[in-house]
Amino acid sequence: MRLSISGTVLLVGACMITGISAMGQNQNVTAKQTGTFDVAITYNADRSSSLGGNDFWMQGGGVQLHGRFWKGLGAVADVSAAHTNDMTGTGVGLDIVTATFGPRYTFALPKQHAEFFAQALGGVANGFNSTFPGFYGATSVAQGMAIDIGGGVNVPLSRRFAVRALQASWIRTDLSNTQKNVENHLQLGSGIVVRF
Known about the structure:
There is one protein chain. The chain is 15% helix and 60% strand. It has one helix at residues 5-34; strands at 37-50, 55-70, 73-84, 94-107, 115-132, 139-156, 161-173, 183-195. The protein is elongated and about 55 Å long. It starts with a helix and ends with a strand. Residues 1-34 have low confidence and may be disordered.
């Protein structure tokens, strides 16, 4: 039997559509079972200190986009913001926004109704609405690197939703200050996770 070019194109197209449809159904089942993509919205409390020992609390929140690609291994992008009106009793405020990205490993212990994760992220920190000493004088904005190492636990509520029961991170930023231009943060957070 001879097929015309248009008939061959239609046959190949029909086979491709059938194959893609079958793959899509299989991926949907996998996504429902493992939750390959999720978005977390968190409230964060941030204990900040410079190397000089001046500690203070900041309040804020964050958004995380997480994709799981192979078993428990995935990648996460995190944007967090924190604010205080008064650093260390000086009357000077501070706002910090960090944008970090890196790997995350998620795992569940047998017979546990929770997922645990650990992550190591790197990116940038932006400080503003404050006073940052510099070579040519003080400025109200500063930018530097940020490292975020931590983990947490998600408790599923349904196939689509989970509670971020706890997230704890050590964050190091290198914004200019009067000490050695290094700040350490202990960030504790909780929130809601939506799975797709």
